[in-house]
Design goal:
Elements lengths: L1 H19 L5 H16 L4 H27 L16 E9 L4 E6 L2 E7 L4 E2 L4 E8 L2 E6 L18
Parallel strand pairs: 3-6
Antiparallel strand pairs: 1-2, 1-4, 1-5, 2-3, 5-6
Length: 160
């Protein structure tokens, strides 16, 4: 009967370790220890108890743990702080001009220095999407790209 209590104590200790960690590793070995306690109760030899412990623990670790990890981890990780700004829309408050090195955009009431990789100037009031945050500088792009006007589409001047 001593082996049963030893396996149960090991299972309890591994369960406590699992509570303090989040990897679902110790619980697999706790399950192996519980099944080994059952093997000891049935009178199996120490060698068989160890084999049962190893087989059940490894099966749980390699078969059950990945399934548990898949369902227990968040796929849609909540973004906070600066990371939460990426993908958001901001409004240009100062023309973004890469030649003059000017530009500011406002998001959530905060005014940020803004740069872009696009050609031309992004005017005040235009909506931009935040692509990246580097320290205190937003890298942005237009929400609606400006359409280039071809010469044949340009309005004809009136001649009188």
């Amino acid at each position: 009967m001593g082996a049963v209590y030893m396996w149960l104590a090991l299972a309890g200790l591994l369960f406590i370790i699992e509570i303090m960690t989040v990897g679902f590793g110790a619980i697999c070995f706790a399950l192996g220890a519980l099944v080994s306690a059952g093997a000891a109760y049935l009178g199996l030899s120490t060698a068989w108890q160890i084999i049962v412990f190893a087989v059940i623990s490894l099966l749980a670790f390699f078969l059950a743990r990945p399934v548990i990890m898949k369902h227990m981890t968040r796929k849609d990780e909540l973004k906070t702080g600066i990371d939460a700004l990426i993908g958001r829309t901001a409004v240009v408050t100062e023309p973004i001009d890469m030649v003059k090195h000017t530009g500011r955009a406002k998001v959530d009431g905060d005014d940020w220095k803004a740069v872009t990789e696009e050609k031309g100037v992004i005017e005040v009031g235009e909506d931009v999407t935040i692509l990246e945050v580097n320290s205190v500088i937003l890298t942005v792009k237009r929400v609606h790209p400006r359409r280039e006007v071809k010469s044949e589409e340009a309005p004809a001047e009136k001649t009188e």
